[in-house]
Design goal:
- The chain is of the alpha/beta class.
- It has two domains: 143 residues, Aspartate Aminotransferase, domain 1, CATH 3.90.1150.10; 254 residues, Aspartate Aminotransferase, domain 2 (3-Layer(aba) Sandwich).
- Helix content is 41%, strand content 13%.
- It has 15 helices and twelve strands.
- The strands form three sheets. Strands 2-8-7-6-5-3-4 form a seven-stranded mixed beta sheet, sandwiched between helices. The protein has a three-stranded antiparallel beta sheet with strand order 9-12-11. A two-stranded parallel ribbon has the order 1-10.
- Strand 5, helix 8 and strand 6 form a beta-alpha-beta unit.
- Helix 5 packs across helix 11 and helix 13 runs parallel beside helix 15.
- The protein is globular, with a radius of gyration of 21 Å.
- The N and C termini lie far apart (53 Å).
- The mean pLDDT is 95.
- The site of pyridoxal-5'-phosphate (PLP) has 14 residues, from helix 5.
Length: 410
Amino acid sequence: MINARLERLNDYPFQRLADLLKGNDPRSNDRPIMLHIGEPQHQPPDFAIDIIAGDRKRWNLYPPVVGTPGLRESCAGFLRRRYGVPASALDPHAQIAPVAGTREGLFMVALLAVTQSEGGPKPLALMPNPFYQVYFGAAAMAGAEPVFLPTSAASNWLPDLDAIPEETLRRTQVFYLCSPSNPQGTCADLAYWKKALELARRHDFMLVADECYCELYYTPAPPAGAIEAALALGPGPHGHVLDNLLVSHTLSKRSSAPGLRSGFVAGSPHAIAMLNRLRVYEAASTPLAVMDAAAALWDDDAHVEATRALYARKYEIAARLLGGRHGFYQPAGGFYLWLDVGDGEAATRALWSEAGIKVLPGAYLTKPAADGSNFGKPYVRIALVQELEATEIALTRMSQVLDRLGTSRA
Ligand SMILES: Cc1ncc(COP(=O)(O)O)c(C=O)c1O
Protein backbone atom coordinates (compact mmCIF):
# COMPACT_ATOMS: atom_id res chain seq x y z
CA MET A 1 0.00 0.00 0.00
CA ILE A 2 2.91 2.36 0.71
CA ASN A 3 5.76 2.85 -1.78
CA ALA A 4 8.60 0.69 -0.45
CA ARG A 5 11.15 3.24 -1.65
CA LEU A 6 10.06 5.49 1.20
CA GLU A 7 11.64 3.01 3.60
CA ARG A 8 15.00 4.12 2.25
CA LEU A 9 14.61 7.72 3.42
CA ASN A 10 16.21 8.42 6.78
CA ASP A 11 14.82 10.88 9.22
CA TYR A 12 15.70 14.37 8.00
CA PRO A 13 18.76 15.87 9.83
CA PHE A 14 16.59 18.33 11.76
CA GLN A 15 14.43 15.49 13.11
CA ARG A 16 17.59 13.67 14.18
CA LEU A 17 18.77 16.85 15.86
CA ALA A 18 15.47 17.19 17.74
CA ASP A 19 15.87 13.59 18.92
CA LEU A 20 19.46 14.22 20.00
CA LEU A 21 18.49 17.26 22.06
CA LYS A 22 15.31 15.84 23.57
CA GLY A 23 15.32 16.24 27.35
CA ASN A 24 18.51 18.28 27.15
CA ASP A 25 17.08 21.80 27.53
CA PRO A 26 19.38 24.84 27.91
CA ARG A 27 20.37 25.29 31.55
CA SER A 28 20.82 29.05 31.46
CA ASN A 29 18.22 31.74 30.91
CA ASP A 30 20.20 33.14 27.99
CA ARG A 31 18.17 33.61 24.83
CA PRO A 32 18.49 30.49 22.63
CA ILE A 33 20.09 31.22 19.26
CA MET A 34 19.43 29.02 16.25
CA LEU A 35 22.38 28.31 13.98
CA HIS A 36 21.45 24.80 12.92
CA ILE A 37 19.45 25.56 9.78
CA GLY A 38 20.44 27.57 6.70
CA GLU A 39 17.51 29.93 7.03
CA PRO A 40 18.68 33.56 6.73
CA GLN A 41 17.05 35.79 9.33
CA HIS A 42 17.80 39.13 7.65
CA GLN A 43 14.86 41.16 6.45
CA PRO A 44 14.41 40.87 2.67
CA PRO A 45 14.07 44.24 0.89
CA ASP A 46 10.84 46.16 1.58
CA PHE A 47 10.14 46.54 -2.13
CA ALA A 48 9.53 42.81 -2.38
CA ILE A 49 7.36 42.60 0.73
CA ASP A 50 5.34 45.60 -0.49
CA ILE A 51 4.57 43.88 -3.78
CA ILE A 52 3.05 40.94 -1.93
CA ALA A 53 1.25 43.09 0.64
CA GLY A 54 -0.21 45.27 -2.12
CA ASP A 55 -1.70 42.42 -4.12
CA ARG A 56 -5.40 42.37 -3.30
CA LYS A 57 -6.81 41.09 -6.57
CA ARG A 58 -5.28 37.95 -7.94
CA TRP A 59 -6.01 35.36 -5.27
CA ASN A 60 -8.83 33.94 -7.39
CA LEU A 61 -6.37 32.75 -10.06
CA TYR A 62 -4.31 29.59 -10.24
CA PRO A 63 -0.75 30.77 -10.79
CA PRO A 64 0.85 29.26 -13.93
CA VAL A 65 3.12 26.34 -13.05
CA VAL A 66 5.62 27.58 -15.65
CA GLY A 67 5.77 31.01 -13.96
CA THR A 68 4.91 34.39 -15.41
CA PRO A 69 6.79 35.68 -18.48
CA GLY A 70 8.09 38.56 -16.33
CA LEU A 71 9.57 36.21 -13.75
CA ARG A 72 11.26 34.11 -16.41
CA GLU A 73 12.74 37.29 -17.96
CA SER A 74 14.08 38.39 -14.59
CA CYS A 75 15.67 34.99 -13.88
CA ALA A 76 17.35 35.10 -17.28
CA GLY A 77 18.48 38.67 -16.60
CA PHE A 78 20.20 37.46 -13.45
CA LEU A 79 22.06 34.75 -15.39
CA ARG A 80 23.10 37.30 -18.01
CA ARG A 81 24.48 39.75 -15.45
CA ARG A 82 26.02 37.20 -13.13
CA TYR A 83 27.60 34.87 -15.69
CA GLY A 84 27.78 36.91 -18.85
CA VAL A 85 25.35 34.60 -20.65
CA PRO A 86 24.59 36.21 -24.05
CA ALA A 87 20.92 36.84 -24.76
CA SER A 88 21.24 34.63 -27.85
CA ALA A 89 22.20 31.64 -25.67
CA LEU A 90 19.26 31.79 -23.30
CA ASP A 91 15.60 32.01 -24.24
CA PRO A 92 13.84 32.83 -20.95
CA HIS A 93 10.57 31.31 -22.09
CA ALA A 94 12.02 28.03 -23.29
CA GLN A 95 14.92 27.57 -20.92
CA ILE A 96 13.86 28.77 -17.47
CA ALA A 97 11.51 26.89 -15.16
CA PRO A 98 10.61 28.84 -12.01
CA VAL A 99 10.23 26.41 -9.08
CA ALA A 100 8.64 26.64 -5.66
CA GLY A 101 12.01 26.77 -3.91
CA THR A 102 14.93 24.86 -5.36
CA ARG A 103 14.34 21.96 -3.00
CA GLU A 104 11.31 21.21 -5.13
CA GLY A 105 13.25 21.62 -8.39
CA LEU A 106 16.16 19.49 -7.18
CA PHE A 107 13.76 16.73 -6.25
CA MET A 108 11.93 16.83 -9.56
CA VAL A 109 15.06 16.74 -11.71
CA ALA A 110 15.81 13.20 -10.51
CA LEU A 111 12.40 12.11 -11.83
CA LEU A 112 13.24 13.96 -15.04
CA ALA A 113 16.65 12.36 -15.53
CA VAL A 114 16.36 8.81 -14.21
CA THR A 115 15.02 6.10 -16.50
CA GLN A 116 14.57 2.52 -15.34
CA SER A 117 15.54 0.02 -17.97
CA GLU A 118 13.85 -3.36 -17.78
CA GLY A 119 16.35 -5.93 -16.52
CA GLY A 120 19.31 -3.52 -16.88
CA PRO A 121 21.67 -2.43 -14.11
CA LYS A 122 20.22 -0.01 -11.59
CA PRO A 123 20.79 3.62 -12.62
CA LEU A 124 23.14 5.61 -10.41
CA ALA A 125 22.80 9.11 -8.93
CA LEU A 126 26.11 10.69 -7.94
CA MET A 127 26.39 13.23 -5.15
CA PRO A 128 29.11 14.62 -2.93
CA ASN A 129 29.59 13.49 0.66
CA PRO A 130 28.56 15.59 2.69
CA PHE A 131 25.38 16.09 0.70
CA TYR A 132 22.10 18.00 0.71
CA GLN A 133 19.50 15.48 1.82
CA VAL A 134 17.14 16.20 -1.04
CA TYR A 135 19.65 14.79 -3.57
CA PHE A 136 19.49 11.48 -1.76
CA GLY A 137 15.73 11.50 -1.30
CA ALA A 138 15.15 12.40 -4.93
CA ALA A 139 17.50 9.68 -6.16
CA ALA A 140 15.90 7.07 -3.91
CA MET A 141 12.35 7.97 -4.96
CA ALA A 142 13.32 8.02 -8.66
CA GLY A 143 14.66 4.49 -8.28
CA ALA A 144 18.35 5.32 -8.66
CA GLU A 145 21.13 4.02 -6.44
CA PRO A 146 22.83 6.97 -4.70
CA VAL A 147 26.63 6.99 -4.92
CA PHE A 148 28.32 9.23 -2.36
CA LEU A 149 31.56 10.68 -3.68
CA PRO A 150 34.11 11.46 -0.98
CA THR A 151 35.42 15.00 -0.62
CA SER A 152 38.82 15.77 0.84
CA ALA A 153 41.24 18.62 1.31
CA ALA A 154 43.26 17.25 -1.63
CA SER A 155 40.30 17.78 -3.97
CA ASN A 156 39.33 21.19 -2.52
CA TRP A 157 36.49 19.43 -0.66
CA LEU A 158 34.76 18.67 -3.97
CA PRO A 159 34.41 15.17 -5.43
CA ASP A 160 37.53 14.06 -7.28
CA LEU A 161 36.17 13.72 -10.80
CA ASP A 162 39.20 11.73 -11.98
CA ALA A 163 38.57 9.11 -9.31
CA ILE A 164 35.07 8.14 -10.46
CA PRO A 165 35.30 4.66 -12.03
CA GLU A 166 34.30 4.31 -15.69
CA GLU A 167 31.77 1.62 -14.78
CA THR A 168 30.09 4.07 -12.37
CA LEU A 169 29.99 6.80 -15.00
CA ARG A 170 28.45 4.41 -17.52
CA ARG A 171 25.50 3.76 -15.20
CA THR A 172 25.12 7.35 -13.99
CA GLN A 173 21.95 9.19 -14.96
CA VAL A 174 22.13 12.21 -12.67
CA PHE A 175 25.02 13.92 -10.87
CA TYR A 176 24.30 16.58 -8.24
CA LEU A 177 27.09 19.05 -7.54
CA CYS A 178 26.87 22.04 -5.23
CA SER A 179 29.13 25.09 -5.47
CA PRO A 180 29.77 26.97 -3.23
CA SER A 181 29.37 23.74 -1.34
CA ASN A 182 27.27 23.14 1.72
CA PRO A 183 28.74 22.80 4.32
CA GLN A 184 32.44 23.34 3.50
CA GLY A 185 31.94 26.46 1.38
CA THR A 186 34.42 25.57 -1.35
CA CYS A 187 33.87 26.66 -4.93
CA ALA A 188 34.29 24.77 -8.16
CA ASP A 189 36.38 26.70 -10.69
CA LEU A 190 35.63 26.86 -14.40
CA ALA A 191 37.99 23.97 -15.20
CA TYR A 192 36.20 21.79 -12.67
CA TRP A 193 32.76 22.59 -14.06
CA LYS A 194 34.01 21.95 -17.58
CA LYS A 195 35.37 18.57 -16.62
CA ALA A 196 32.10 17.65 -14.89
CA LEU A 197 30.05 18.70 -17.91
CA GLU A 198 32.36 16.85 -20.30
CA LEU A 199 31.80 13.70 -18.27
CA ALA A 200 28.04 14.30 -18.36
CA ARG A 201 28.11 14.69 -22.13
CA ARG A 202 30.42 11.75 -22.73
CA HIS A 203 28.18 9.44 -20.69
CA ASP A 204 24.95 11.27 -21.47
CA PHE A 205 23.77 11.91 -17.91
CA MET A 206 22.31 15.06 -16.37
CA LEU A 207 24.67 17.30 -14.39
CA VAL A 208 22.65 19.25 -11.85
CA ALA A 209 24.52 22.33 -10.63
CA ASP A 210 23.05 23.45 -7.31
CA GLU A 211 24.37 27.02 -7.06
CA CYS A 212 22.11 28.27 -4.29
CA TYR A 213 25.02 30.00 -2.49
CA CYS A 214 26.60 31.51 -5.62
CA GLU A 215 26.03 35.11 -4.54
CA LEU A 216 27.61 34.69 -1.12
CA TYR A 217 31.35 34.66 -1.70
CA TYR A 218 34.42 36.13 -0.01
CA THR A 219 36.90 35.96 -2.86
CA PRO A 220 37.86 38.87 -5.11
CA ALA A 221 35.99 37.34 -8.06
CA PRO A 222 32.61 35.62 -7.90
CA PRO A 223 32.67 31.82 -8.13
CA ALA A 224 32.43 30.38 -11.63
CA GLY A 225 29.09 28.89 -12.62
CA ALA A 226 28.32 25.69 -14.47
CA ILE A 227 26.57 27.70 -17.16
CA GLU A 228 29.90 29.38 -17.98
CA ALA A 229 31.38 25.93 -18.57
CA ALA A 230 28.56 25.15 -21.00
CA LEU A 231 29.20 28.42 -22.86
CA ALA A 232 32.90 27.61 -23.06
CA LEU A 233 32.30 24.06 -24.32
CA GLY A 234 29.61 24.96 -26.84
CA PRO A 235 26.76 22.74 -28.02
CA GLY A 236 26.59 19.21 -26.63
CA PRO A 237 25.53 15.87 -28.12
CA HIS A 238 21.92 16.98 -28.60
CA GLY A 239 22.89 20.19 -30.38
CA HIS A 240 22.26 22.69 -27.58
CA VAL A 241 24.71 24.66 -25.46
CA LEU A 242 22.98 23.63 -22.23
CA ASP A 243 22.80 19.93 -23.10
CA ASN A 244 23.25 17.63 -20.11
CA LEU A 245 23.12 20.52 -17.66
CA LEU A 246 20.53 21.96 -15.32
CA VAL A 247 21.52 24.90 -13.13
CA SER A 248 19.53 25.67 -10.01
CA HIS A 249 19.28 29.08 -8.30
CA THR A 250 17.25 30.38 -5.38
CA LEU A 251 16.18 33.57 -3.66
CA SER A 252 16.33 31.84 -0.27
CA LYS A 253 19.99 32.69 0.28
CA ARG A 254 20.63 35.51 -2.20
CA SER A 255 17.72 37.61 -0.97
CA SER A 256 17.31 36.16 2.54
CA ALA A 257 13.82 35.04 1.55
CA PRO A 258 13.50 31.31 2.29
CA GLY A 259 9.83 31.87 3.09
CA LEU A 260 9.12 33.07 -0.43
CA ARG A 261 9.73 29.57 -1.85
CA SER A 262 11.09 30.84 -5.10
CA GLY A 263 13.91 29.66 -7.31
CA PHE A 264 14.45 28.49 -10.85
CA VAL A 265 16.08 25.83 -12.95
CA ALA A 266 17.68 26.62 -16.33
CA GLY A 267 18.57 24.13 -19.01
CA SER A 268 18.15 23.18 -22.65
CA PRO A 269 14.73 23.82 -24.21
CA HIS A 270 14.01 20.08 -24.32
CA ALA A 271 14.95 19.44 -20.69
CA ILE A 272 12.94 22.45 -19.50
CA ALA A 273 9.92 21.46 -21.59
CA MET A 274 10.03 18.00 -20.02
CA LEU A 275 10.52 19.42 -16.54
CA ASN A 276 7.50 21.65 -17.08
CA ARG A 277 5.50 18.67 -18.29
CA LEU A 278 6.35 16.85 -15.09
CA ARG A 279 5.69 19.86 -12.89
CA VAL A 280 2.26 20.50 -14.37
CA TYR A 281 1.20 17.19 -12.86
CA GLU A 282 2.97 17.83 -9.56
CA ALA A 283 1.59 21.42 -9.63
CA ALA A 284 3.87 23.09 -7.09
CA SER A 285 3.76 26.79 -7.87
CA THR A 286 4.00 30.07 -6.02
CA PRO A 287 1.29 32.76 -5.93
CA LEU A 288 1.33 35.48 -8.59
CA ALA A 289 2.26 38.15 -6.04
CA VAL A 290 5.22 36.04 -4.95
CA MET A 291 6.30 35.69 -8.57
CA ASP A 292 6.20 39.47 -9.00
CA ALA A 293 8.20 39.96 -5.81
CA ALA A 294 10.66 37.31 -6.95
CA ALA A 295 11.10 39.04 -10.32
CA ALA A 296 11.88 42.32 -8.54
CA LEU A 297 14.46 40.56 -6.34
CA TRP A 298 16.20 38.90 -9.29
CA ASP A 299 16.33 42.32 -11.00
CA ASP A 300 18.11 43.96 -8.06
CA ASP A 301 21.75 43.43 -7.09
CA ALA A 302 22.15 46.23 -4.52
CA HIS A 303 20.53 44.29 -1.69
CA VAL A 304 22.68 41.27 -2.52
CA GLU A 305 25.87 43.31 -2.21
CA ALA A 306 24.75 44.50 1.22
CA THR A 307 23.96 40.92 2.25
CA ARG A 308 27.34 39.70 1.08
CA ALA A 309 29.07 42.43 3.08
CA LEU A 310 27.03 41.47 6.13
CA TYR A 311 28.15 37.84 5.93
CA ALA A 312 31.75 38.96 5.45
CA ARG A 313 31.48 40.88 8.74
CA LYS A 314 30.10 37.80 10.47
CA TYR A 315 33.10 35.81 9.28
CA GLU A 316 35.38 38.51 10.69
CA ILE A 317 33.65 38.08 14.05
CA ALA A 318 33.99 34.30 13.76
CA ALA A 319 37.69 34.61 12.93
CA ARG A 320 38.23 36.83 15.97
CA LEU A 321 36.37 34.49 18.33
CA LEU A 322 37.26 31.07 16.93
CA GLY A 323 40.35 31.67 14.77
CA GLY A 324 43.26 29.27 15.24
CA ARG A 325 41.04 26.74 17.04
CA HIS A 326 38.45 24.07 16.25
CA GLY A 327 39.60 23.88 12.64
CA PHE A 328 38.22 27.35 11.90
CA TYR A 329 38.79 28.61 8.35
CA GLN A 330 37.32 31.30 6.16
CA PRO A 331 35.39 29.53 3.40
CA ALA A 332 35.35 30.89 -0.14
CA GLY A 333 31.56 30.97 -0.22
CA GLY A 334 28.28 30.11 1.51
CA PHE A 335 27.37 31.04 5.06
CA TYR A 336 28.49 28.11 7.18
CA LEU A 337 31.26 27.28 9.58
CA TRP A 338 32.36 23.65 9.45
CA LEU A 339 34.23 23.16 12.68
CA ASP A 340 36.26 20.16 13.75
CA VAL A 341 35.26 19.73 17.38
CA GLY A 342 36.30 16.11 17.95
CA ASP A 343 32.80 14.70 18.48
CA GLY A 344 30.07 16.64 16.67
CA GLU A 345 27.12 15.15 18.54
CA ALA A 346 28.70 15.66 21.97
CA ALA A 347 29.58 19.27 21.09
CA THR A 348 26.06 19.87 19.75
CA ARG A 349 24.54 18.65 23.03
CA ALA A 350 26.94 20.75 25.11
CA LEU A 351 26.39 23.88 23.03
CA TRP A 352 22.64 23.56 23.44
CA SER A 353 22.50 22.67 27.12
CA GLU A 354 25.32 24.96 28.30
CA ALA A 355 24.89 27.94 25.98
CA GLY A 356 21.51 27.68 24.24
CA ILE A 357 23.19 27.56 20.83
CA LYS A 358 21.68 25.13 18.36
CA VAL A 359 24.03 23.73 15.71
CA LEU A 360 23.96 20.59 13.53
CA PRO A 361 26.28 17.57 13.95
CA GLY A 362 28.34 17.04 10.81
CA ALA A 363 27.48 13.33 10.83
CA TYR A 364 23.86 14.18 9.97
CA LEU A 365 25.05 15.54 6.62
CA THR A 366 27.33 12.68 5.67
CA LYS A 367 26.92 9.06 4.65
CA PRO A 368 28.88 6.56 6.76
CA ALA A 369 31.40 4.39 4.90
CA ALA A 370 30.84 0.64 4.52
CA ASP A 371 32.98 0.01 7.63
CA GLY A 372 30.67 2.26 9.70
CA SER A 373 33.17 5.13 9.99
CA ASN A 374 31.68 8.54 9.34
CA PHE A 375 33.83 11.31 7.96
CA GLY A 376 31.41 13.96 9.31
CA LYS A 377 31.54 12.74 12.90
CA PRO A 378 34.11 15.21 14.25
CA TYR A 379 32.34 18.22 12.78
CA VAL A 380 29.52 20.61 13.57
CA ARG A 381 27.89 22.85 10.99
CA ILE A 382 27.06 26.38 12.06
CA ALA A 383 24.81 28.52 9.88
CA LEU A 384 25.73 32.20 10.27
CA VAL A 385 22.17 33.24 9.54
CA GLN A 386 21.35 35.48 12.50
CA GLU A 387 21.77 39.26 12.59
CA LEU A 388 25.23 40.63 13.54
CA GLU A 389 24.55 41.17 17.22
CA ALA A 390 23.05 37.72 17.77
CA THR A 391 25.90 36.20 15.77
CA GLU A 392 28.49 37.84 18.02
CA ILE A 393 26.68 36.71 21.17
CA ALA A 394 26.29 33.17 19.83
CA LEU A 395 29.90 32.81 18.72
CA THR A 396 31.18 34.23 22.01
CA ARG A 397 29.16 31.69 24.00
CA MET A 398 30.16 28.97 21.56
CA SER A 399 33.88 29.65 21.80
CA GLN A 400 33.66 29.47 25.60
CA VAL A 401 31.92 26.08 25.53
CA LEU A 402 34.21 24.63 22.85
CA ASP A 403 37.32 25.87 24.62
CA ARG A 404 36.06 24.34 27.86
CA LEU A 405 35.36 21.05 26.10
CA GLY A 406 39.02 21.12 25.12
CA THR A 407 38.48 20.03 21.57
CA SER A 408 40.77 22.72 20.30
CA ARG A 409 42.52 21.93 17.02
CA ALA A 410 44.35 24.48 14.96
C1 LIG B 1 22.70 22.90 -0.86
C2 LIG B 1 21.31 23.37 -0.87
N1 LIG B 1 20.59 23.27 -1.98
C3 LIG B 1 19.31 23.68 -2.04
C4 LIG B 1 18.70 24.24 -0.94
C5 LIG B 1 17.23 24.61 -1.07
O1 LIG B 1 16.93 25.91 -0.99
P1 LIG B 1 15.46 26.42 -1.34
O2 LIG B 1 14.52 25.25 -1.44
O3 LIG B 1 15.09 27.30 -0.20
O4 LIG B 1 15.58 27.15 -2.64
C6 LIG B 1 19.41 24.39 0.25
C7 LIG B 1 18.76 24.97 1.44
O5 LIG B 1 19.26 24.99 2.52
C8 LIG B 1 20.75 23.95 0.28
O6 LIG B 1 21.51 24.08 1.36
